[in-house]
Design a protein that fits this description.
heterodimer, A: 405 residues, alpha/beta, 7-stranded mixed beta sheet, 5-stranded parallel beta sheet, 9 helices, 26 strands, 20% helix, globular, B: 464 residues, alpha+beta, 8-stranded mixed beta sheet, 11 helices, 22% strand
Amino acid sequence: MSTARHVDVAIVGGGPAGLGAAMALRRAGIESVVVIEREAEAGGVPRHCGHPAFGVREFGRPMSGPRYARALVGKARAAGVEILTRHSVVALEPEGRLLIANPDGALTVTARRVILATGARESTRAARLVSGDRPLGVVNTGALQAYLYLQGLTPFRRPVIVGTELVSLSAIWTCLAHGIRPQAVIAEGDRAVARWPMGLFPHLLGIPVHYNTQVEAITGTGRVDGVRVSRNGRPSIEIACDGVLLTGHFVPEASLMRSAHIAVDRNSGGPAVDQFHRCSDPSYFATGNLLRGIETAGWCHREGLALGRRVAADLSATPALAATIPITVAPQLKYAVPQRLAPGISGNAPALQLRLSEPFSGELVVTSGSRELLRRPLRSRPERRILVPLSNLSGADDPITIRLQ
Amino acid sequence: MADPAAKCNSYDVAVIGGGVVGCAVARRLTLDGARVVLVEKGGDILSGASKANSALLHTGFDAPRGSLELACMQQGYAEYLAIRAELNLPLLETGGMVIAWTQEQQAKLPSILAQAHVNGVADARLIDADAIHAREPALDRRALSAVLVPGEHVIDPWSAPLAYLTQAVANGADFRRRTEVIGGRFANGAWSLDTTTGPIAARYVVNCAGLFGDRLEAALLGDASFTIKPRKGQFLVFDKMAARMLRTIILPVPTERTKGVVLARTAFGNVLVGPTAEEQDDREHATVEQDTLEGLRQAAIAMVPALADVQVNAVYAGLRPASEQKHYRTRRDDERNFLSLGGIRSTGLTAALGLAQYARGQLAQMGLDAVPLAAPAITPVPNISEMAPRDWQADGHGAMVCHCELVTEREIVAAFATPVPPGELGGLKRRTRACMGRCQGFYCSAQVARLSEGHLTPAMAVAS
């Protein structure tokens, strides 16, 4: 059975960003707003982050992830948002046409505007090309949390945790809350990537942290039985464990865009957007962690809300792509979002987001042609938020280059 | 665990080893009327060499002339085409090009072409750089010329052997997994095999034990006629967006030692590159190595530059049961009703059905007397390739579980209810594609663990 529907705005992905966009659209008076969610329930990744510190800004108190997800879904429904769960978008087509599979058959939704909010995921063992055997028990944090919080299962009891991003803390928390005893934390650099609350957090829990260390090989037939790590020239050591938790290295979940007509930025891994977060097809917008890996749930939700308001206004215009100014970044920068500027830098466009690919201390210099638009000191590390207000870029006529020196 | 007590333990033929060759032999002998048991020491079929290959259906254009290998490849090729529709097996008709990237390689093309013609691959022909690029616009412009072999194709390397064994079982064969043959005696015209799950009696033994074929021979006959020298091959699989960059199989000009690194589509819409050829003594561990994988990735990018922007979805490694000689190693012992099919290095997927015919012929000469089944059961396997409609496109599939590979709940549940159900996670992945995509189980593995509870050893997870 195949059916067709027409709506004002379709939102692909019912996480904090997608739900934020949807509720903002409804509040702005847009009639038909549909969120298309492939899981059995909307709410996104927070659904399986069973630890606190979600929702302080949105709901005025700290909540667990699942509770926060439920609260967002409730709020969206109360605002009149329709949420289709177990609906998988399988293709994006021009003119806002979405091909969807659901348990009852196929469905086509055509929307005047589409908002892509498919989030991000941690990169896999395969994509990292990690050496060794390929036994059971090598998972990402997101998968571990789905095992524990959604299925009541665990893939291991004594894992080694690889990575020190913010999500790695979430991983440690999740393990300890379920009686899983991490054997070690492997840090590539000389310190944690994230600003860990109480920088020594794992130490205090008696979990050894190995800095300047890389995974050399995973060992085990059937199940993981150990990890061999190399330590910058010193002899390798074996750490006995029954699993490996690969944390972080988030990549936007942009596969729908890659196989469609929508341009994807090589640096961010998400769709290339202008400052209004409009994609290369002007009927399509993107928001949340699909734009880049990654920000917090709260940040994504606010990003979604703001995009919803802009798209509500955009619905009264004819979608068109204006001539744009490209933004290019130096190699020490992992990405810049947006990747181009359309005419009309308005007060409600979000700031330019940058991230480093290596620690840096010096000056951030933004030029447009031969004109210097901004020069400011920068001292930061990878995976830390760096924002440049768009007002700094107003008046740019030539391609913009962002350099570090 | 199979329950040997519940079944008759006396067979015409015990086929030892559940790789692609063992599955094909079990099917052929069963269809020809023999009572067959397939004995596999792993938790599922394809747990050894057969799980990791380049998934190609070869014409035999470059096989040694006059060899058993060539004969079996060409018989296997023909039989695959003959049975694939009724068993619901895919065929991606790609053609292959042996590409010369250097002058030195170019000088070898005429002899490759001549051998193809001698081997009966009459439509093989030389093409120039313009023809190469007209056929494959994304290919790097350094390609000088090529031997085009239109009959080289891509198949599903896991559904095919599964279909062979499924048809064998549907027609009366037994499959004993997690059963290792540790010894045996031949007396009074029959073998008594000692296994880890109890004795098995069979008049004939066919050794399809792959990486352990020499050891099985030694255990049963007292000496081995060949020595397995495991050769590791690492592979890397690009995401599906790569599929539009390539159609034809890109084959290298071979060296003395190996057929070299192949770049090819898969039946599932990916592009794979591999294998390496690394000799090792270890028969159990096939590790992947970051530097080697990166080298493979770069080799692929050198052939198709646009692959630089495509994510790597999966990496794997397999061991090929090479021996100290290049050719297939067979041994027939008429005194002890024993046949070895050994040293099947890298053409086993294509040759399996032909080897099965060969084995049938040999056993007949050794006195195996059987009447082919008049109306054997035809047992199509579920389609998981991209060449035919998938379950998610049909109504009532329950829900999508694996979003990357579009695998439904109904497909996963159904896999456990088949005559040859998956016994380990790898087997479930090979039967359904769940967890095989770009997220490698980030989104779906917890749900797959739930759906597979009680079916897989080792289990994906336990109660938390």
